[in-house]
User: Fold this.
Amino acid sequence: MTEASVREFKMPDVGEGLTEAEILKWYVQPGDTVTDGQVVCEVETAKAAVELPIPYDGVVRELHFPEGTTVDVGTAIIAVDVSGGAAPAEPRPEAARAAEEPKAEGSGSGRQPVLVGYGVATSSTRRRPRKGPEVPVQQASTAIQTELNGHAPVAPAAPAPTAPAAPVTAGRPLAKPPVRKLAKDLGVDLAAVVPTGPDGIITREDVHAAVAAAEPKTPEPSAAPAAPAAVSASASASYDTARETRVPIKGVRKATAAAMVGSAFTAPHVTEFVTVDVTRTLKLVEELKQDKEFAGLRVNPLLLIAKALLVAIKRNPDINASWDEAAQEIVVKHYVNLGIAAATPRGLIVPNIKDAHAKTLPQLAESLGELVSTAREGKTSPAAMQGGTVTITNVGVFGVDTGTPILNPGESAILAVGAIKLQPWVHKGKVKPRQVTTLALSFDHRLVDGELGSKVLADVAAILEQPKRLITWA
Assistant:
């Protein structure tokens, strides 16, 4: 096998305006055979998680980066032998790998290629190792209970004279999933464990050894008692550690935070509210569920709310616009890419339905169903989150009555939908129980004045109160 037969697969362009991505999971290992189009890893950008297919056939020779490493676009992440020979199991030394890595254009001046578009972006970094795994709140609670039951996080164990020194690695410690689970169950911090396995991999024996080394020794009768102050200090430090969870700000959450701060301090927000009786809309939802045109489709109040907003935009097209600061122009869009805010394990994302204004109600229902299911699976593509013109955020699913939503950057309006509740309502001159909700519309006051914003919100409310207006106003 010659070096000429080895192909280096580089981190590709996976999102607009991005320059790096984090390797979440490898689906292959050195020695595995891969085919053209086979997914080899999953990466996360500031936009979404994306699966990467390999573009050729061969045998995996080396994975250049472990899971949890953030890699610049254009950097080789996996080596594949395309000659048909067997790949070595041992990875190349870091220094040799660095010498063989092709340099990105302009790397000598700290410039690297951007993900989409022309030109290059300035950067002084080649890669940024992951600071640590993200720990969910549930795991933090489990850690606290473990501490209260008497298991303290393990301090670094002193290596035996014959044990190899822990190798210097980027990212999280190397260990197989069963070993990680064992360490989690025993309350062991893998970063404090000395590995003895090949290539610096932590074994089950290493975890058990770390537990044994951390357990207080029962003194012999003739031995001096242990210093209580030292034990108390150690237990206190362990407990303090378990009381906090630090989550790295990266990926989707980092991008969302930056976008929301930029939007809040760039566009002057105005929010208006209206409470509306949506009893007739809920009745229509139940009728549509029985209609054969909607067979197999998800029909819910959000579908009719989305259609109501699209009709309101058609009646008031200036609401569907953006502010171009550089050109000092208001750009009115003659199409609607309807964004739907979705809460996912990786954070809030806003994919949008392209050309929603041109879809029939069944087509809109199908698009909404696909958008929601894709978001829940974490498979939303970066392209699906680009080019939105107006957004709906449904806070009602959390039992919240209303809110003051922040505009999605580049858009002029966002509609928040509150919880639908049975409330006393004056209907035909009598107080009756009716299904009621509160709508909130935030808009950019640079290009949307109070009259325009009020008309749009009033139209949405009127349609939801009398859904037959979907026909008469369409």
The two ends are 67 Å apart (CA to CA). The chain has a mean pLDDT of 77. The CA atoms of residues 418 and 439 lie 6 Å apart. The longest strand covers residues 430-444.
